[in-house]
Amino acid sequence: MSVKVVLLEDEDLVRGGIRMILDVDPDIEVVAEGSDGSVAVELALKHRPDVVLTDIQMPGVGGLEATQRLVALPDPPAVVVLTTFDLDEYVYSALQNGAVGFLLKDTSPQELTRAVHTVARGEAMLSPRITTKLLSAFSTSAPAQSAKAQLEKLTAREREVAVAVAQGLSNAEIANALHMSQSTVKVHIGRIMTKLGAANRTQVAILTHDAGLA
Predict the structure, then answer these.
(1) Cα(163)–Cα(60) distance, rounded to whole angstroms?
(2) What keywords appear on the UniProt entry (predicted)?
(3) 111 and 18, same structural domain?
């Protein structure tokens, strides 16, 4: 089945370019577009997308608020934030609010389509060139001691998986690195998210980084 995508972007030219890229992939279907985050929930409820790609800065309702509204829905779509800036101060807030990742608008077509498929599978996708910079720049947002206390709730094996998640590894890569099946990896990640109160893998990665483990 095709991955259904809703695209939110206020600039017509940018939105049209992103749609052209996604339309090339036969396994991706852009089911709706919007130029303002105010329509995010309406489009999500109507079209039931797997993924929402949203600009972070839009007139009216921006990407931050749109993300909050979307992740509050029952069975919410995966939200990926699009930004122009390497270290947009709002990106970290978007991740904390439940976005599963972010991409720069000049991301290559191949990386964009790969990101859509990745988050549709339930995995996080952060732009590789700035993930480390982002986490390092905002690592003081959560006290290290508090983060370490949270991670103490995990078993030794779960901490290994959490560190692998923070390193940006996919489920398949974690399975290979830790010598376990992908189904076991999924079980561990589910337990980790429950114990840490994390909404998604990205929040696990941030907490693990803040604890100094990655």
Answers:
(1) 38
(2) DNA-binding, Phosphoprotein, Transcription, Transcription regulation
(3) yes
- Total count of domains within the chain: 2
Whole-structure pTM value: 0.70
Quote the Cα angle for 107-108-109, to 5°.
Answer: 120
17 and 105 within one domain: yes
Each residue's pLDDT tens digit, 107-143: 889 989 988 998 898 876 765 555 555 555 555 555 6
Answer yes or no: do 130 and 150 share one domain. Answer: no
3-state helix, strand, coil in the chain (%, to 5): 55, 15, 30
Last residue of a domain, one of 81, 106, 135: 135
* 44 and 94 inside one domain: yes
Please name the helix (run of DSSP H) or strand (run of DSSP E) that holds residue 184, with its range, or none. Answer: helix 182-196
CA distance 187 to 42: 32
Last residue of a domain, one of 110, 135, 160: 135
Q: CA-to-CA distance for 120 and 116, rounded, in angstroms? A: 6
Cα 121 to Cα 118: distance, rounded to the nearest angstrom: 5
The H-or-E segment that residue 54 falls in is strand 51-55
Please state the length of the chain. 214
- What range defines the domain where residue 183 resides? 141-210
Whether 60 and 22 have beta carbons less than 8 Å apart is answered as: no
